[in-house]
Amino acid sequence: MPAHRRRLWSREHRNWRDNEWGRVLFTDESRFSLSSDSHRILIWRERGSRNHPSNIIERDRYGGRGVLVWGGIMLGSRTDLHIFDAGSVNGTRYCNEILLPYARLFRGAMGLQFLFMDDNAPCHRTVAAEQLLESEDIECMDWPARSPDLNPIEHVWDFLGRRLASRTLPPVTIRELRLALQDEWTAIYQQLIDTLILSMGRRCETCLAFRGDHIPY
């Protein structure tokens, strides 16, 4: 059961020290859309007619054209933001576009202490990906299924989305979206990333307190 596995994982990692979390490159994919991801309905109205049905115009819906991105964060550092070209991401693309240029680079810089975290998405668990990680001597963190709430990079995606939404001129084309994502990713303060990673001990404690259920992070 996922909750049981999450409890075991949290119990195992609850007492990790900061330098142990500092070994880990936390990674994930996320999709960003040209449409609003806020699930809010934006309205235009005359003064005094607040929320009148005739004045509500739906302008943005969840979904629409967008891009899939990948990134990695760790104490004191982060990867470049990788933006996938169109098409599904299979094991071959994951090896060629992520593991070889990014995971191998960090493994080379950090040596044997490096620990690579990704989730259990199918493209991450192909035979090709497992063989590549083994051939490059990259140690992977055992990760519990269905646990995005334990991954600190989820908060980075949320922050990135908010930064995009708050732009004076939000992107309206895929090219503008790609450029804006790169700019905002680079502009994220490393202190924010470090704070999120150093919250891992508290996340583990909270997960245990919730008996393995999803936590409010």
TrEMBL record:
<dbReference type="GO" id="GO:0003676">
    <property type="term" value="F:nucleic acid binding"/>
</dbReference>
<dbReference type="Pfam" id="PF13358">
    <property type="entry name" value="DDE_3"/>
</dbReference>
<protein>
    <submittedName>
        <fullName>Transposable element Tcb2 transposase</fullName>
    </submittedName>
</protein>
<feature type="domain" description="Tc1-like transposase DDE">
    <location>
        <begin position="23"/>
        <end position="167"/>
    </location>
</feature>
<dbReference type="InterPro" id="IPR038717">
    <property type="entry name" value="Tc1-like_DDE_dom"/>
</dbReference>
<dbReference type="InterPro" id="IPR036397">
    <property type="entry name" value="RNaseH_sf"/>
</dbReference>
